[in-house]
Amino acid sequence: MPVSVKICGLSDRAGLDAAMAAGARYVGFVFFAKSPRAVTVEQAAALAVDVPPGIAKVALVVDADDATLDEIVARVPLDMLQLHGHETPERVAEVRARYGLPVMKAVGVASEADLPALNAYAAVADQILVDAKAPKGAPLPGGNGLAFDWRLIAGRRWPVPWMLAGGLTPDNLAEAVARTGARQVDVSSGVERAPGVKDEVRIRAFLDAAGL
Ligand SMILES: O=C(O)c1ccccc1N[C@@H]1O[C@H](COP(=O)(O)O)[C@@H](O)[C@H]1O
């Protein structure tokens, strides 16, 4: 059965067009200055305006304050906010209420000890993103191309839709889906030829591997 795909970290027209043509259900724009995939509000708005209904436009932010989110939400047509920092469950609830947009909360997983957080966030977010935990001292909290041990979440389910992320590639996607049972997946560096540079051939290959 095909899985739904989010292509994250899109920053130019060629990458966005490739993701849409290949059948991505979500496209993500990164609003985090330290990322090689960071876009400005102007860049994201210019890209998002051409995304047709049926493909969800997601803004990825990291511990963003209200002023930052106010500007993004006011100027970029969006369908979802992805919180990828240390936002608490209370902050997730606050962001949902303030903007009236679905919120997906990313949770980093490296060991069993990280699993209870998934339940806590599943109680307040519209979706959860089960990602590899960034290594200590890493400049980015995600987008590092690292996978976690998928056996940790094998057979686990939550009361909201969830996505698998972290180090996914066209080559390991089938195994990741088989091991975890994920019905939605999110990829960034695995479809790039260099950090921040999306590769149209790899995007197509990833969507092919997803059964699309
Ligand atoms: O992609 C980024 O640059 C990024 C920056 C800050 C937080 C999260 C980021 N990306 C997200 O990380 C996961 C996994 O990415 P990868 O496939 O391992 O490169 C994914 O959810 C991205 O949306």
Automatic annotation (TrEMBL):
It is an enzyme of class 5 (isomerase). GO terms for biological process: L-tryptophan biosynthetic process. Its EC number is 5.3.1.24. Keywords: Amino-acid biosynthesis, Aromatic amino acid biosynthesis, Isomerase, Tryptophan biosynthesis. It catalyses: N-(5-phospho-beta-D-ribosyl)anthranilate = 1-(2-carboxyphenylamino)-1-deoxy-D-ribulose 5-phosphate. GO terms for molecular function: phosphoribosylanthranilate isomerase activity. It comes from the Bacteria. Residues 5-208 form the N-(5'phosphoribosyl) anthranilate isomerase (PRAI) domain. Pathway: Amino-acid biosynthesis; L-tryptophan biosynthesis; L-tryptophan from chorismate: step 3/5. Belongs to the TrpF family. This is N-(5'-phosphoribosyl)anthranilate isomerase. It comes from Limimaricola cinnabarinus LL-001. The gene is trpF.
